[in-house]
Amino acid sequence: MRVSDKHNKITQAAVKVFARKGFFNARISDIAKEAKVADGTIYLYFNNKYDILISLFEDEIGKIILQVKNHLETLSDPQAKLMFFAQNHLHLLEDKKDLAEVLQMELRQSNEFMKEYRNTKFIEYINIISAIIHEGQNLGVFNKDIAPGIAKRAIFGALDEMSRLWILDNDPQYTIEKTAEQVCNLFLKGMLADQNTSSPPISS
Amino acid sequence: MRVSDKHNKITQAAVKVFARKGFFNARISDIAKEAKVADGTIYLYFNNKYDILISLFEDEIGKIILQVKNHLETLSDPQAKLMFFAQNHLHLLEDKKDLAEVLQMELRQSNEFMKEYRNTKFIEYINIISAIIHEGQNLGVFNKDIAPGIAKRAIFGALDEMSRLWILDNDPQYTIEKTAEQVCNLFLKGMLADQNTSSPPISS
DNA sequence: TCCATTAATGAATAGCTATTCATAATTATT
DNA sequence: AATAATTATGAATAGCTATTCATTAATGGA
Known about the structure:
Two copies of one chain form a homodimer. By secondary structure, chain A is mostly helical.
């Protein structure tokens, strides 16, 4: 068995256990049992419990970034790119439910975590959005008044909140496609009714 | 000293400590020291550590909801209402930094927490947004295609992500007002450039 | 097959901290 | 002032679990 196999086995087990119990409530022995290795074996591949979490992020988000960037290169329309990003982000919920839960819950875990660990991959992921916006502005498709640095966060936050809804709520009223579409339209067209439409008189 | 005083003293101490160390890393003795009471005293007012967190949410979010709803009644324009909500939410960061951090970090803590505890106050808070949207749609100001149930989450998520940015980043490039304005405009007008504006030819 | 090297095991350690409860202090009642 | 009732204290308990490390197993070269 190659080293990488065991490393990966433990990572995948950690994803499951962290998703199920949360980082702090997860025991090393839980992860070991899930990975079918001895408790001590974990320490041959990771420095400590915390290190498992960090590695997990870097590895898994890294993979996702690659996939997304690859696919975005096949698209040219910024609107389509944004829509793809949203769809893809929300689809992670189906394809990698456990991972999505861990990213959801643990990424914004206790202060220490986020403050000490400048999670570069996460920032790289969000920056995909601002790159799309920038491009759209240069092409004249997107309004130049938009601050990409704010919009990228707003869009990610919105998608992220949608994820939370799904993870916590087992009775989603909308499909993923429908939701991604709604969110994208919200950000593209806004909520204001078309000005050319005659608006009824405002009462009260 | 009235009972409520000590209860409140402990709550306020817990807010500080949770904000500083996160729920799991916070020790009861930390909270006790901060509140200047004995460790055991805490158990005269709360059932356990977890109970402190829950009470804290209900109490503090409850207060905020009251304030927000009161002020919203003085406004009639849905756009203005939305703007107020956004401004107010982001201003919590200045006025109640510790509380904001706790809500930020701990509200979306481990699964068990969110799944078991149907935090009613939190839902009530978010529903303020959907009420505004609904009203706007009835008045013809907001597009009726918008699903308030999705939009409320998207808007909250966006604001929430902005909060995170501030909490983690000590060098914000934008003021709170500016950010609230950007986010609201994003949701009101969208990102698409005005159609009547002549758009340059698309290259590539 | 034998030896050396590497990998894996899991029981024991060591440290931590939520919670309890016997005791003490305070407050109210007679 | 004496007693009762309430409130507060903080040291001790009890339980938990990350990490270590002496031991065992597996691997591969000679």
